[in-house]
Structure formats: structure tokens, C-alpha cells
Amino acid sequence: MALMITDECINCDVCEPECPNDAISPGEEIYVIDPGRCTECVGHFDEPQCQQVCPVDCIPLDPEREESKEQLMEKYRIITAA
């Protein structure tokens, strides 16, 4: 699954630089995650780095974007090949 940022986000700016896929960016009100670029850090780290640094725990799995580890790895391969 891709991750998502909930409206509990406090715009603390710590998640964006941690994303190895550049999937996190400032939105209109809170940070947002591009599901096309989010691999939950598969291919880079064992754990999603944004979740590790988030002080308010507002980055859950997106229930509308179910993806297997294999799908996330394939997305990682496509992103890193570009």
C-alpha cells in the first residue's frame, strides 16, 4: 500500500526530506504523498522513513491503495530506472 498523510499533520517539515522517492510534497494545507511514487521505502529501507520521523503519527497506510511488497518493489525499480 502507499502511505497517506492525514489532516492531523502539523506541517513540521520533517517527513519530506526523509522520502527517498521524493513522494512527499507540500499540499494546499498539509503535506501530501504521491501514491505513484510511494513505495513505503521498499528498495531503500526496512521501514517507511516518513513514519519513523513523524512526531504526530499521522502517516498511515492508504486503504484505497493496496499493494503487495512485490508491487512496491516493481514500482521502486521503475522509479530508480528513470
Please report the number of helical segments.
Answer: 2
Number of domains: 1
From the spread of the alpha carbons, the general shape counts as globular
CATH level 3 topology: Alpha-Beta Plaits
Question: What is the count of β-strands?
Answer: 2
Helix percent band: 10-25%
Class inferred from helices and paired strands:
alpha+beta
Biggest sheet: strands side by side, in what order?
1-2
What is the strand content? 5-15%
Q: What's the N-to-C terminus distance? A: 21 Å
Along the chain, the helix and strand elements come as EEHH
GO molecular function, one term: 4 iron, 4 sulfur cluster binding
Pfam family, one: Fer4_7
Keywords: 4Fe-4S, Electron transport, Iron, Iron-sulfur, Metal-binding, Repeat, Transport
InterPro entries: 4Fe4S_Fe-S-bd, 4Fe4S_Fe_S_CS, PSI_iron-sulfur_center, YfhL-like
List keywords for this structure.
alpha+beta; globular; Alpha-Beta Plaits; 2 strands
Describe what this molecule looks like in 3D.
The protein is α+β, with helices and mostly antiparallel strands and 82 residues long. The chain has one domain: Alpha-Beta Plaits (2-Layer Sandwich). Helix content is 22%, strand content 7%. It has a two-stranded antiparallel sheet with strand order 1-2. The two termini are 21 Å apart.
